[in-house]
Amino acid sequence: MTIVLHELVGADEARPFSPHCWKVVMALAHKGLPFERKPVCFTQVPGVEGGVSKTVPVIRDGSQVVADSFMIAAYLEETYPDRPSLFGGDGGQAMARFVEAWSQSTLHAALNVIALHEIADRLAPEDQAYFRPSREARLGKTFEQIAERRQAEIEGFGAKLTPLRVMLKSQPWIGGSSPLFADYIVFGALQWARVVSSAPLLEAGDAVTDWFERCIDLHDGLGRAVAAAG
Amino acid sequence: MTIVLHELVGADEARPFSPHCWKVVMALAHKGLPFERKPVCFTQVPGVEGGVSKTVPVIRDGSQVVADSFMIAAYLEETYPDRPSLFGGDGGQAMARFVEAWSQSTLHAALNVIALHEIADRLAPEDQAYFRPSREARLGKTFEQIAERRQAEIEGFGAKLTPLRVMLKSQPWIGGSSPLFADYIVFGALQWARVVSSAPLLEAGDAVTDWFERCIDLHDGLGRAVAAAG
């Protein structure tokens, strides 16, 4: 049966950008499971699957409804153990939580500043009225105050990727010799930036850039199928 | 047969401080393997096991000699598969490389500044003449220039632990429900700081502090057996 993925979009439904939804897209493709992407804009989220979650991604797999990208990956791993593993064992599942914590506290924190206006501009009209006050409340600052930090965050972004850059001296993927969900976690953050923002964040010749290029080619180029923001 | 661990010490052989050696101490205890700690000061390292490595830890296990903390952990995992796992599977082994890269590029980079003078003061006399020019060459700065950054690094250290702090909301160990080598990697950095430095780096009530207290109690209090620098 085809799994339904409820996935965040802006005004252009063909350009999904949510980092957490991208993680799930890659996880479903990694498992080789047939799935259908159902676009949802911010203000439609409360109606998804009877209001099961305040956020997307949400998947429906037959009678099962699961929210939260990590919980979805764990559900897929447990439900489809004979398909390619997303974690490479219990240790890998636990350590993917560390990668998630690093990605969110370091990369997302910066991208929330860098891409804020670009995200707002790409939303559906009904979402724009929701997005600004919601994000200003979450960050405790006005859009204008946040924008003052944008250039510094762009300039500091490359250094934040140092742990990944150092690790890539040992192996080609966070998962080792092939990608695992932990790769998709970091991919999600950088794909979000790639789809919504024109900020120059990845440099040619950097091992992280090479890794990201390999990521967007995975699973028949799922990531590359959405063009970079220009 | 008892495994021999060649472990870095300063003037006081009862206060081993090397983060990489501490990782191996914990890994050997985790595997429940009998081992003997052989103290080595910096200038003795070239003579260890016939000069097999420029650094310690080095272990001898019967006829096998292995250098480098991660390679030692991988060797123990492969050689003693029936004892408690250090990685929790292939994915965990791969992701431990990410944790290592994060710990070294973030925590070690800061601790190399914070603890530099305190390490130098604790070395054996013959090592002191080696240590300063070696570290000044590695860091590209004089001890005096490095010392200028010390206070700022102390003040910024807590924020560098944010990824671990965030992860601890999901689970008590980097390894999940119980510690794995990835925990020992980060423990090694903080135990190094604890043994050599009086800088206040961990705050009471912080989830990272609680995790570290759990770490030094592991394996019959191996970490706690060396008192904190005062």
TrEMBL record, chains A, B:
<dbReference type="InterPro" id="IPR036282">
    <property type="entry name" value="Glutathione-S-Trfase_C_sf"/>
</dbReference>
<protein>
    <submittedName>
        <fullName>Glutathione S-transferase family protein</fullName>
    </submittedName>
</protein>
<dbReference type="InterPro" id="IPR004045">
    <property type="entry name" value="Glutathione_S-Trfase_N"/>
</dbReference>
<dbReference type="Pfam" id="PF13409">
    <property type="entry name" value="GST_N_2"/>
</dbReference>
<dbReference type="Pfam" id="PF22041">
    <property type="entry name" value="GST_C_7"/>
</dbReference>
<dbReference type="InterPro" id="IPR036249">
    <property type="entry name" value="Thioredoxin-like_sf"/>
</dbReference>
<dbReference type="InterPro" id="IPR054416">
    <property type="entry name" value="GST_UstS-like_C"/>
</dbReference>
<feature type="domain" description="GST N-terminal">
    <location>
        <begin position="8"/>
        <end position="84"/>
    </location>
</feature>
